[in-house]
Amino acid sequence: MPTVASPITIVISQLAAGPTPPRPGPSGTSVLHTRAAEVVAQMGPPPWARRIIADERNLVTLIASPPGGGNRPHWHREFDEWWVVLGGRLQWELTGGVVVDAAKDDIVWVPRGTVHHIRNVGADLSLRLAVAMPPAWHFYHPCEQCGFADDGPREWCA
Question: Which has the higher per-residue pLDDT, 77 or 120?
Fold first, then answer.
């Protein structure tokens, strides 16, 4: 596989010179303590996604899906992505015919370049915490396994 030059450069704009008190992130993200149940109550019925932490190296998003719901098949060039399942039953379909079933307390990791999409295969709300790296470019790719194809955007930044 040829090497692809990345236009992504991570700049850490504020280095700590020593111990400092914590500071909140932009738009209410990166608060010191978040209760998933309170976010679920605020957001209402799924589907929805709420950014919890955002800085130069981390994007952490709480995602809720209704039964049968999920996301579009896609892949990432610059980063691996991983999730902690907080509730429900989810299924990841990955490049190469790999299927990963996960439930509460499971951790799922997908390496960069792997086409993946996630579906709620349970009867209840699913809740997962997604961890990615900014700027989090997503590249759409149809899923050969399930036949999912649509005419949405080819690239998007989460």
Answer: 120
Distance of CA 87 to the CA centre of its chain: 15
Other CB atoms closer than 10 Å to residue 72's CB: what's the count?
Answer: 17
Closest CA to 55 of 20, 75, 25: 25
Distance of alpha carbon 112 from alpha carbon 89, whole angstroms: 23
Measured over the CA atoms of residue 150, residue 61, residue 134 and residue 75, the dihedral's sign is: negative
Query: Tens of pLDDT along 29-75?
Result: 678 889 999 999 999 999 999 999 988 888 999 999 999 999 888 88
Q: How many CB atoms lie within 10 A of CB 157?
A: 8
Q: Is 105 left (phi over 0), alpha (psi -120 to 50) or beta?
A: left
Tally the residues of the chain: 158
